[in-house]
Fold this sequence. Notes:
eight-stranded mixed beta sheet; 19% strand; globular; alpha/beta; 9 helices
Amino acid sequence: MGNLLFIISLSSIWAMLLYHMFLTLGGYLYSVWLEKHQSALDYSARKSWPAVSILIPAHNEEIVIENTLRAMIKLDYPKDKLEVIVINDNSSDRTGEIVDRYAGMYPFIRPLHTFPPDGGKGKSHALNRALKIANGEFIAVYDADNTPEPAALKHLVNGMIDAPGIGAVVGKFRVINAKKNLLTKFINIETISFQWMAQAGRWFWFRISTIPGTNFMIRRSVLDQVGGWDEKALAEDTELSIRVYEEGYEIRFLPLAITWEQEPETWKVWFKQRTRWARGISMSS
């Protein structure tokens, strides 16, 4: 019996190693394919762009929200086709004040302030509130600590505009505080490995990807079809991915669309984050 368990355990370990090597190969081949085709991209030939709504849920984000809004202003996308809805979700700091100031200067920035009893009910609730007033054909989501690169939005749109079978497109995120300490260095390695193995590898071999919490775009029609975000889900991104696939759509990984985000710098914050992710994934499966 002991020998049988040993053989099963050893076989399982080797199977997982081979599987991840297979995914790594897929990620590498996908990166080669992207590099070859990226040079052929010419967005200047596109005469019109669809309307896009960017949703940014923000709760007590006065430290980072200004950098995020500046990144939105720098997006290389027609501003008459863009609206940025910032959900100031029951913040007790200066988040709302900062958002209002930028909205006064840039008409495409729209503040949405929520207060009790309807405010402060979590990210999914905030996103659903914003979805009700969004006008875009495509809906993009960024966290309040994200600074997407100027071309990110056009890459996301281009990844699905002529492909009706693609329900959502997922970009790549990089760690802006990667060199802060040992923890953030490990998180940086983890994010790079996950994206090029789990995301790129699965997309290359199986045309499977999963929606993250930020830097993704989804068709408004698909969101309406699945009923928006599940406000009871702890990991709303994983749960949404499952429902998009159930409706017969694909979720594409397109690492040309890059955003930079802040990661936890203490083990306590990191542990709380991962515990929430684990609980959310287990409840969604």
